[in-house]
Structures are given as structure tokens and as C-alpha cells.
Amino acid sequence: MRLRRTLTAMAAVALLATSGTAAYAASKGPGDNAGGIRSVTPITTVYTYGQKVSAVAVEYPQTVNPRELDNSTFSVSDTVYNFRFNQMDDLPKLADRKVTHTYTNNAPTTRADRRSVDGRYVIVELDPAENLGWTVIVSKCPTFLCSVKVNTELPTRVTQRKDVHAQPGKGKGKGPVQAKAAPKTPRGVTEKPVNLLVDDFQYGSYLSSGMVLPYHYHLPKNYQPGKKYPLMVVLPGHGMGWDGDNLGVQIAADIPATAWLQSSWTGSREDVIVLAPQNQRVGLPAEGDLLIRLVDQFVKDHAVDTDRVYATTVSYGSRLLWEAFAKRPDLFAGGLVTGGFQVGADQAKAIAAGEVPLWITHGVNDHLLNISLARNSHAALRAAYEAQGKTPAQIAELLHYTEYGNEAFSLPDYHAAYGPTYEDRSILQWLLAQRKG
Fold it and tell me: Is CATH 3.90.1150.10 correct for 31-195?
């Protein structure tokens, strides 16, 4: 069965895009363009624990004079809501953000060098360490477990506190005022967000036996069909499964999808293809079979090094990894399980028989999945290798295990073991170093 875009899925994407556009258009009040401001665009980045507003781009009619800007020219306020800790009632509650850089650009996006270039946009960058401005919110709670989605109506507010000038005609002086200071007039966003890296993923869907599996994937910038690339299959947590209203959240909810695209995370400049399926939570056997068929077909359709197909998980995603690795150990070169479920006894035997290298990590005080699940998985896999006659040194090559205390987490969600795991570059490098055969 070929990978293809189904009409239903395409309609879902179109609906999502349309609703997002309508939401921002609706938030554009009658005064939003007053005083010279043309538009306000939020810019987002995925950090360890998910996507947040990392900057805003304020557009003016003419090229802005950057010499009259500083970090006090604008203030930004954003939501205190974090779906891991807060109730939805907290979403409209705002707090002030710390502005870290202010410069001009010719497009509504950030610059790595943070140097001003001639342009109509003022880029206001924000402190990434703040627990503010998160974009992922609760989507649906069909059971006691909820799913999440990316908010299409971001509550971010920008206030211009000083006059903003155009470039002077002869390069001297302040230049004419484009917009006077309006310290009592916060402005909402007017444009759809620019989602750094997330927007670079492509959408696809896999149809088999009447079931549709949405997924997103990322090919290297200079992708060459004649070359072979490692493939990282990212299996998200339960709440990031497809619920009919949360397409693409598995890319934004946490770092595992985008980390593999950044040398700052992997420590390597090697290009990696990332495949992030979004299984509907309909039952493990059906999900596992569909996942395997998707990966098989994706490998056929793209320039994948079949000796370097990996999987990495968050929470529920471990169940899919155990299932897929046990059924098709020949397909995978290695796996990374963070904050996961316990492997089954038969699954452990099959994985050990296939000698698939694994690294298991877990938070000691995980409040959702007790640390005993990881310890039992480690013990079951170790016992399976011992039953095959593997020596302790051989087992140590195939099976790695790490527990994290509370101090290892930069946010106090001790279930999110992917946090300290992905912040340890050596673990990501270990996974990419695994090869079959």
C-alpha cells in the first residue's frame, strides 16, 4: 500500500489551516493597525518541554530605524498556562515576559546573529527559560486521559512603550515617527505563527485496511534520493495521538521530533530523516501493525539507510516500540525508551533474540508510570539476554539503563524523562551510532 494523502486527511489539514487563519483575523481589533503598526506575528520554538512563543515580529509601513530601539521599546505578556500543571481557566491569565533582544529584520522571523538588517519588522526575542508562553493546550478528554493540541488563538500581547522611527532620509537623526508610544494599548497577534522547524515538516497519511495513520516527516534540506540517510521514528505520548482535532501536535508538544534536526542537540552535523506518526489510540495490536507497515513503506519510498532505522519514544510510545521491535526486530537498529511502560515477557525474548540495542530512561519519582515499570523492563531484557548465554559485557553493549532524580528535570514533570534524556547529548549520539549487522 503506497503512502498517500487521503481526501479526508487533506480536508482536515485545510480545515485546521482555515480555522487558524480565521482565529487570528478575528483577533485583529479595530485599533490593531492604528499608530502605524501593520501586524503582530508570534514566532515559536520547540524547547525541551514543548513549544512556546519565543519572539514576536511587529511590522511597520516603512523600514525601521534600529538605532532607536532597545529592549525597553516593547513589552510582551503571555499566558501562564502550561498543560502539564495548569487548568484551562489559567489560559487567559497573562504575565510579563523578559525581552532579551530587539532588532530589525526584512521578514517576520528571527536571525541567528540577532543583528539588525534593513526591514519593516522589529523582532522582539523573549527569555526561553521562562515558564510562560506555551502553545500546547488540552484538546479533548474522552476518558480520564486527555489529548492535547496546538492553540490556534494565542493570547500573546505586545505593548509599544516608546516611539518607533523610520530610517532617516540621509542616514542621520532619528527619522520620522512611524508609531507613537502606546503604553496603555496592548495589541494581540494578527497573523498565524511562524513555527521554527515545526513548519518545515511535511504532512502525509498512510491508509491500510480501512485505517488512516496521519504522520509528519522531515527530509534534509539538501535531500538527495541517491544518498542514504538514517531514519528516526518518533513515537509520542498518549495525549499526542490523533484525536480528530490535534493534527501535528506530536511535533510541537516536546523536543524528540525536532531535536534530531539540530546539531546543538545531537552534537552531529549528520542529516537525519524524521518520521513522526500520530496513531489513533484504538488498541495496541492494530496500532503496532499499522506502524510497522508505515515504516516499511516509508523506507521503500525514501532514501533511508536500512541499517540505521531507529525509534525513540515518550511514555505511551514505548508500548508501540515494544510491539514493533518484538514483531520486526530486523527492521530497527536501536531504540530509546523514555518514561515508558513495561515490556512484556514474550516481547523481551523476541527483542533479545533480535539483539536490538536499547537505552531505557525513567524518572525515579514518575507520578504517572512508576519507576518499577522501567526497572522490570530492564530486568526482563537482561534475563532474556542471559538466557541466550550473553556475557555481562555483551549485555552492557546491548542494554543501557538510566534513572533520573528530581534534580535532573528543568521543569518539575518527573514523568517527562525525555527531558534530561535529550539534554544528555551522549545518549542521542549513542543511538545514532547503532547499526545493524
Answer: no
Residues forming CATH 2.60.40.2180 domain(s) in the chain: 31-195
Over 80: is that where the pLDDT of 23 sits?
A: no
What b/e sequence results for 264-295 when a residue is b if at least 16 CB atoms lie within 10 Å of its CB, and e otherwise? ebbeeeebbbbbbbbbbbeeeeebbbbbbbbb
Q: Are 273 and 219 in contact (CB under 8 A)?
A: yes
Judged against a pLDDT cut of 50, whether residue 52 lies above it is answered with: yes
Supply the pTM of this predicted model: 0.91
Kindly tell me if the per-residue pLDDT of 329 is higher than 50: yes
Residues in the chain: 437
pLDDT tens for 191-227 read 999 999 999 999 999 998 888 999 999 999 999 999 9
The separation between CA 17 and the C-alpha centre of its own chain, rounded to angstroms, equals 18
For the chain, give every residue range classified as CATH 3.40.50.1820: 198-433
Q: Which fold does the domain 198-433 belong to in CATH?
A: Rossmann fold (3.40.50)
Sign for the CA dihedral angle at 230, 236, 242, 248 comes to: negative
Strands 136-138 and 121-126: unpaired
Answer whether 374's CB lies under 8 Å from 362's CB: yes
